[in-house]
Amino acid sequence: MTKTKKRSQSQKCRYDPQILNEAVNAVKTGMTLRAASSEYDIPRTTIYEHAIRTPKKWGRPTVLTALEEDVIADTLNQMAVMGYGLGSTELQLIIKKYLDKTNQVVSQFNNNKPGRSYIQAFMARNNLSFRRSTNIKSRRSVVNQESAMQFFINLMTAGDISRENIYNFGETTISDYPANRKVIARKGIRRVEMLTDYSRNCISIMCCGSASGEILPFFVCYKAESLKHQWISDGPPDAMYTASKSGWLDKKAFEQWFIDLFLPIVQNRPGKKLLIGDSSPNHFSSRIVQLANDHNIYFTNLPKNSVHILQPLHVTVFKPLKNNWRTVLSNFRKDRLLTGPLSKADFPALLKALWFEMDKSISNNLISGFKATGIYPRDPNVPLKHLPDAGLGIKKGMNRKLDDELIQLLRENRQEVFENAATKSGHLSSKAIPGLAMVSNLSATHSTESDDYP
After folding, report:
1. Using alpha carbons only, what angle is made at residue 359 by residues 211 and 160, rounded to the nearest 5 degrees?
2. Which residue from 435, 441, 172 is spatially nearest to 303, judged by alpha carbons?
3. 178 neighbors 330 (Cβ within 8 angstroms)
């Protein structure tokens, strides 16, 4: 195991930086060094270095120059933006190869490979940190800055809409699969098992919330031919239920949600309403579009595969929802001493517990979600910074020989993934334009498609 060297406590700065600034300003306005040192209790040499000449940099010089570190740090940032983030081992190898290529030998390194303490110091100097990455499928590379910006440009046609009338809907699933939890076991055991039977039965939940933090009642969809009474009893307040063969909301189920749940809540509210959802063809029926137009609802869709960037519910609501669900499910199993599969008849009561657990933070999460996606307040730059080509400009005066070829390779690779994903899924042929209001003839485009959600 590699030993971590503990650095001795620094002897500098045994005074308040604010007091030092006051002493420096006093000297610059005419006070002598001796008088300032006596009044502020700071050594004269320290005040002299800060007030009259540029202070020396503390500690030994770095192995790489500031420019070389800046180039490497910028390369790491660009690779993370392109979806190819590196870890500490890769950073060690990059520095080693760079030192070997430039014929530099660093005696402190083992065969020119820096250790963990150097990597930690390098990251601290260059404002870098370890972040847990989120895995995305290749088809999500279809969304880029151009398509996201076009969505916001098209969305401008909706005009100014108050935040309490801006809604986002989305569909997610929860299952009876219990969360893995830590248990006590002897040290050295490689595998610790928990005897629990589960079926991985999933139910789909349609959620909808506004930019003002209002969450609408759940709309629950079971995978079944028809509903049973015990599946809908003692559930969350005002929740509605349906069933479909696939377990997802098909066109019939979505119309039921829109007509029976969404419309009664918003139809009598003053002003235009904005309703934003994903690009599933199950949402594009002529009946829905006509009802939206009749009730002054600007109904539009997001760009394909962009929910991880542009859908407020996906960004800030669904993850805490599923975390809370695991807690509710775990407590239920523990209280009932349940080790077998969960019955559908138990879901409504658990959903009710989930609803009240989420009620503590759901409003703030919704508001944060609309802000993080740039939908409200309207700011396209917020989501654009998470997409490729954001912040990839070359800094003036920098020698980019180290990473120019690498960045170009990553761009070409990601573009190839984009083209393959778009062609395979047929996303480029969609007639629904993200950000623009649905029109009645859109339904003709999708009238021959299956009602099952893919």
Report:
1. 10
2. 435
3. yes
Provide the 3-class DSSP secondary structure of residue 190. coil
| Cis omega (within 30 of 0) for bond into 114 | no
CA distances from 114 to 42, 64, 401 (A): 38, 11, 21
pTM greater than 0.70 (yes/no):
no
State how far the Cα of 340 lies from the Cα of 358, in Å rounded to an integer: 26
- The SS3 call for residue 5 is coil
- Please give the Cα distance from 245 to 232 (Å, whole number): 18
Among the listed residues 79, 118, 80, 82, the one whose alpha carbon sits nearest the alpha carbon of residue 99:
118
Number of other CB atoms surrounding residue 74 within 10 Å: 21
Q: What are phi and psi of 10, to 5 degrees?
A: -65, 145
Pairwise CA distance, residues 395 & 151, whole Å:
29
- pLDDT tens sequence for the chain (454 residues): 455 555 554 445 567 888 888 988 998 888 898 999 888 888 888 888 888 766 566 667 888 888 888 888 887 887 776 667 788 888 888 888 888 888 889 888 999 999 999 999 999 999 999 887 776 665 555 577 888 899 999 999 999 999 999 999 999 999 877 566 677 777 777 777 666 555 567 889 999 999 999 999 999 999 999 999 999 999 999 999 999 998 889 999 999 999 999 999 999 999 999 999 988 888 778 889 899 999 999 999 998 888 889 999 999 999 999 999 988 988 888 887 766 677 888 899 999 999 999 888 999 999 999 999 999 999 999 998 877 654 444 444 344 445 454 555 455 555 554 455 444 444 333 467 888 887 543 444 444 343 333 3
Q: Take residue 439 and report the two structure tokens written for it.
A: 């029109």
The alpha carbon dihedral of 342, 347, 349, 351 has a sign of positive
Task: Answer yes or no: are the C-beta atoms of 389 and 412 closer than 8 Å.
Answer: no
Residue 316: exposure state from Cβ atoms within 10 A (0-12, 13-18, ≥19): buried
Cα separation values, 100 from 27, 118, 152, 447, Å = 48, 17, 48, 63
Measured in degrees and rounded to the nearest 5, phi and psi for residue 27 equal: -65, -40
Instruction: Provide the edge-to-edge strand list for the sheet that holds 202-210.
Output: 240-244, 219-223, 202-210, 166-175, 273-277, 297-301
Is residue 289 within 8 A of residue 442, CB to CB? The reply is yes
CB-CB neighbours of 159 under 10 Å: 9
Beta bridge partners of 36: none
